[in-house]
């Protein structure tokens, strides 16, 4: 896995090279600033599988750099880990909204860094596998590749939507105080296997985008962040003092979906009914313990 590390502190950059090599990832290119990193990324002869970004840097901070990287088609989905001393919720929120995949605070723990990089390596390998599957896939409409049902589908331009891995990491990074009013719900498309079998790849992807857009609209007032995990399941984290009943959310969501009038290529109605589970309060402490047990 080829890594780009960006930090204005030469000592930290040297440590990063040593740490990543120690945990099995020795291929690291170093940049001392955002502009230097962008120059490397714009060089088509380079290609990076993962990026480690500091936040507090002159000229261009790491959050701005993350956003600039996400705007580059070649790196719109490349895993980005923020490595920073900034622990405040505003920085965590800003980083994930800019497109960060994960967030680690300094001083760095070698074991934890290694665990996060191994997760990233598995993610990179899985994406390569999907690309290999979809490259030769038979398509039915608009040359849209068939993505396996259990996989995430790339979705662009939906407010509040981030990658599934990033959403899990975002919840883990928030302190108990930051999660005080947070709730998490799951939204599941009913009869997803039947829809997947009947729909063309383009129709199925349009369905997922439609539901993601509707979920974004429903939860916008609650500062919601959402992700698609595959198998017709979305997760949404939002902030609200009182627990939000799922029945009202379901009705509002279904109205938005029905207004789209989705159809199959043969003109028949694509009826998508979404069930929203009861909200829960996330427990990052338990999630961390479970993650360590794994």
Automatic annotation (TrEMBL):
The keyword Transcription regulation applies. Gene3D superfamilies: 3.40.50.2300. SMART domains: REC. Residues 2-121 form the Response regulatory domain. The keyword Transmembrane helix does not apply. Keywords: DNA-binding, Phosphoprotein, Transcription, Transcription regulation, Two-component regulatory system. The modification 4-aspartylphosphate is found at residue 54. This is Response regulator. It comes from Pararhodobacter zhoushanensis.
């Amino acid at each position: 896995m080829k890594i780009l590390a960006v930090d204005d502190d030469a000592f930290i950059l040297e440590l990063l090279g040593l740490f990543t090599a120690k945990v099995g990832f020795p291929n690291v290119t170093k940049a001392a600033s955002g502009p230097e990193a962008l120059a490397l990324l714009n060089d088509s002869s380079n290609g990076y599988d993962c990026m480690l970004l500091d936040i507090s840097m002159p000229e261009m901070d790491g959050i701005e750099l993350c956003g600039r990287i996400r705007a580059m088609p070649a790196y719109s989905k490349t895993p980005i880990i923020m490595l920073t001393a900034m622990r405040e919720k505003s920085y965590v929120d800003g980083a994930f909204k800019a497109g960060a995949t994960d967030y680690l605070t300094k001083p760095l723990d070698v074991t934890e860094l290694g665990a996060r990089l191994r997760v990233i390596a598995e993610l990179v390998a899985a994406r390569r596998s999907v690309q290999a599957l979809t490259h030769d896939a038979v398509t039915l409409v608009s040359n849209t590749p068939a993505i396996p049902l259990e996989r995430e589908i790339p979705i662009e331009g939906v407010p509040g939507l981030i990658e599934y891995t990033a959403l899990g990491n975002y919840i883990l990074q928030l302190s108990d105080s930051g999660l005080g009013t947070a709730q998490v719900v799951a939204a599941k498309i009913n009869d997803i296997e039947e829809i997947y079998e009947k729909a063309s790849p383009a129709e199925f992807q349009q369905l997922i985008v439609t539901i993601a857009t509707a979920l974004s609209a429903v939860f916008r007032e609650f500062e919601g962040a959402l992700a698609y995990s595959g198998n017709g399941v979305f997760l949404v984290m939002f902030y609200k003092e009182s627990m939000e009943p799922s029945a009202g959310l379901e009705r509002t969501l279904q109205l938005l979906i029905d207004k789209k009038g989705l159809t199959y290529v043969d003109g028949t109605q694509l009826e998508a009914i979404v069930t929203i589970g009861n909200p829960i309060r996330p427990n990052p402490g338990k999630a961390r313990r479970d993650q360590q047990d794994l």
